[in-house]
Amino acid sequence: MAAQTAARLVRALEEVLGGPVPLRVRAWDRSEAGPPGGPVLVVRHRRALRRLLWKPGELGLVRAWVAGELDIEGDLYEALGRLAGQVWERPAAPAPPLPRRLESRFGLGRELLALAGPLPPPPPPREEVRGRTGLRHTLRRDRRAVSHHYDVGNDFYAQVLGPSMVYSCAYWDGSAYGDAYGDAGGRPVMTLEEAQEAKLDLVCRKLALEPGQRLLDVGCGWGSLVLHAAREYGVTAVGVTLSREQAGLARKRVAEAGLADRIDIRVQDYREVGDGPYDAVSSIGMAEHVGAARYRLYADRLYALLRPGGRLLNHQIARRPEPDEEKYRMDPFIDAYVFPDGELSPVGRTVTLLERAGFEVRDLESIREHYALTLRRWVANLEADLPRAARLAGPGRARVWRLYMAACALAFERNEIGVNQILAVRTPGSGVSGLPLRTRDWRG
């Protein structure tokens, strides 16, 4: 009977997923079934099935993954690619009562229940965000959401991001996209650190930074952009973040660089900044936290903080438009474990709201493929020493980040999401934008 466990499991999972299981499956008793070759889905404990019974689809599987009850042997990217159509894009399941629903909807409901063992399901792993109350994107709730994502240990992020400590997509040479891992001999075409420095410099050139100007970096992270701008372009800079751990390390880096007299790092919400005007504002990978309901306020606030003729560089992940925008919901895994209350918008909506705030949008550059390459490098950094990552941030958190970054890399590669740099100007009444006639001249 034990030898049939995996075969029974595959049949039951096919009923739950509504299609064939695209991976070979190994059950907790070491029995195997399913298509040979390729990655193997390892079900380490029957508790994983109890999670799936109560949360069919993505969230149930993710909870089992975070708890270590599910694993992948082999190529994680290939496994996620095979699962994409059956799990990640399926709609959420209806509400309980679940046993009766299984009995009516799935012919093997009883068998899955028998394999799963006693109900009810175990509680979600502790890394899941809980207890969210009140309106989204208030100052207090945003602080808590940002803390969940970023205050997990600077050493953990240093392992993932590398020495650059930049947590947004790098900017790669054109030749680098041909092979994510290097040239024909396996040698890196461009290091992650080189590509991140290229991105920081691109932002500075688009903003046309000059000595003596004031730069505001909204969502400054660990201070990499303000450090680059002060050191290479001679500006004075203010960086704001809601993460105390980020701010602590950013201030340390600023002091070590001897730039404390020109860079101010604050734990502050963008809505609380009141010392404008600035010559330039950068927002790199921060606007995803703002929320659709608050985006016009965000755009209005940044417009007000700029002097006439000042420039905004808004670097933001974008999703594809939904047929019914009212039904858009953030991915349940990312909302529960990664970016609580995060929201993505189509790039067209972002441009519209910036223009309604008064900005003149002068340039939009899609760098989607660049983020896919960056994420693959981050995953490689994490996988280079998974035991250390688990010690630094906890086993569940390390598993969350590995799954999240690998899945996002595939989403960027498949054009399911994108990322764009939008250059906008607070053009004065004279109509003189201050930009060159050939805007792409900033590439050098």
From TrEMBL:
CDD domains, sorted: AdoMet_MTases
Keyword Lipid metabolism: yes
Source organism of the structure: Streptomyces carminius
Keywords on record: Lipid metabolism, Methyltransferase, S-adenosyl-L-methionine, Transferase
GO terms classed as biological process: lipid biosynthetic process; methylation
Alphabetized Pfam families for the sequence: CMAS
Origin organism lineage: Bacteria, Bacillati, Actinomycetota, Actinomycetes, Kitasatosporales
Active-site residues annotated for this sequence: C408
Protein name per the record: SAM-dependent methyltransferase
Domain of life of the native organism: Bacteria
GO MF annotations in UniProt: methyltransferase activity
Signal peptide: none
Family to which the UniProt record says this protein belongs: Belongs to the CFA/CMAS family.
Transmembrane regions: none
